[in-house]
Write a structure and sequence with these properties.
This protein is mainly alpha-helical. α1 runs antiparallel to α2 and α2 runs antiparallel to α4. It is elongated. The chain has one domain. The relative contact order is 0.16. It has four helices and no strands.
Length: 111
């Protein structure tokens, strides 16, 4: 899961540099918007996976419901607690990205 968010961070820095070089008026807020969208997508996938793991009888044992959740969680330590922790972490990262986007939008609008 850490690798996914590290990849988003690296991609965000590269996107910011591309926006800045291209002369985009509000490069940081647009970069944070893209990061927020990807983080929200990961949160939705992890929420789906966590909710489906709570429904008894839906799966034969515990499983992962979508490929993005499988990529984020991996193959080790599948449990309800692992799914819940991954979902809570994703929610926290999404909220931080959203706050950063709002702050960047406000600060760039003042210029």
């Amino acid at each position: 899961m850490f690798l996914f968010y590290a990849a988003i961070l690296v991609a965000s820095v590269l996107l910011f540099l591309c926006f800045k070089r291209a002369g985009v008026v509000t490069p940081f807020s647009r970069t944070m918007l893209v990061a927020t969208l990807f983080s929200t997508l990961a949160t939705v996938c992890l929420a789906d996976n966590y909710i489906q793991s709570l429904i008894p009888g839906l799966q034969d044992g515990i499983s992962i419901s979508n490929s993005l959740a499988y990529y984020l969680i991996g193959e080790d330590n599948w449990s309800h607690a692992t799914y819940q922790a991954a979902f809570e972490y994703a929610v926290l990262v999404s909220i931080l990205c959203l706050i950063s986007y709002i702050a960047a939008s406000i600060l760039e609008a003042r210029k």
